[in-house]
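Practice record 12: protein with EPZ.
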Amino acid sequence: MMNTTLYSSDAFLVEGGVRLRGTVRVSGAKNASLPIMFATLLTKEESVVENVPQLLDVENASRLLSMLGAQVERCGDKVVINSERVKSFETPKEIVRRMRASVLSMGPLLGRFGRARVALPGGCSIGARPIDQHLKFFASAGAEVRVRDGYVNVEVGRKRGVRFRFDLITVTGTENALLYLSTVEEESCLENIAIEPEVIDLVNVLKKMGAHIEIEGRKALVYGSSELKGFVHSVIPDRIEAGTLMVAAVLTDGDVILEGVEPKHMKAVLEKLSEAGARIDNLGGGRVRVRKGSRTSPLEITTREYPGFPTDMQAQMMALLSVAEGRSVIYESIFENRFQHAYELMKMGAKIEVRGRSAFVYGVDKLKGAEVNSTDLRASASLVLAGLVAEGTTIIKDIYHLDRGYERLEKKLNSLGASIERLPSVAQLT
Ligand code: EPZ
């Protein structure tokens, strides 16, 4: 009986048993590019964002800015944006559904127009991901916040400074607040903020635009300006793509040099990778050599807000640990449902026990190629990694999840010796 399967989007065919060798360049950070692109809404001057990865999420951010009335032009790794003619302050449902980070338009639109109407981002497969902290901040800053028909309507009369403490650490919540307060010509203080490198990259852009921002620990002092200027800024390297490529090198017992890396953004990841058996040499100049070393001890990983171990590297580490000897434990403290890749890895022979926010990974000698589903961005990356080292062929479906956050990952891995074929969407496979 031919079991043909219809795919709703591209699939990957991954041949296992390769050893990656060579040099690969890491792209600019997705999660820095997005808030920085939205910062261009705060000025009527032209801005140039450089080292921007070619990703679905970046395309969606460009599309949203154009829908709002901005001129957006992609030239190679640069995006040139002029928001002078932006008139609309509404971010519609269809764009938010495709990219929940569109919620980052709320702070800039409120700062620019005194009002914003943004569709509520739903949850996604890794969790409910509410934006209550974003709305609590805007309300505390004196805005009127009304949620109706799936939209958040925010309106502020006289802008004033605010002292606000986040109840929990939120990356885009912090970014939304900083984007808005950069337009408020009074002293403000934010406490319990996120300090991910991507947040700091946004702060550096807002300072170039003319906002005064000081970060002390998890506190930000902000004095904004009503005349923010255009800017030129090169986005920091993507520490999660770098970590993903490092895991690929270790998993395949390869020898890979990554270029364009910022090791100081990756301390927790480099530490855990070394513990998990990686041999990492910082060659300087943004170049890092990664090989397989010797495993030291069963691993315990708890995801934490930066500078702790990033939740966006959790799935990739699970792929690595599923073929490392001994029992490892992963505790996912950030998102309530970020272990779906475990069930797909189990289809490949991984031995993993999921209990609530803990996953117990019992290393096996070999994974076997299988047909698996991508459920979210980093889960799909972990399945590609597992496919590289599995026996036989792995078919990974719904690769659009991967395309949201990785720039041509299969091309980068194939340039290192991998054998990954992209099957066009709606392909019939036996
Ligand atoms: C950012 O998402 C990143 N996305 C995520 O990367 C990343 O996983 C996450 O930060 C954590 O580091 C972008 O920067 C575009 P949070 P964000 O607000 O800001 C809860 C990827 O793989 N929370 O820091 O949405 C929330 O539910 C993506 O590139 C509230 O309860 O994450 C979560 O459990 C995935 N209320 C925790 O806080 C709020 O108002 C952290 O969320 C906000 C958040």
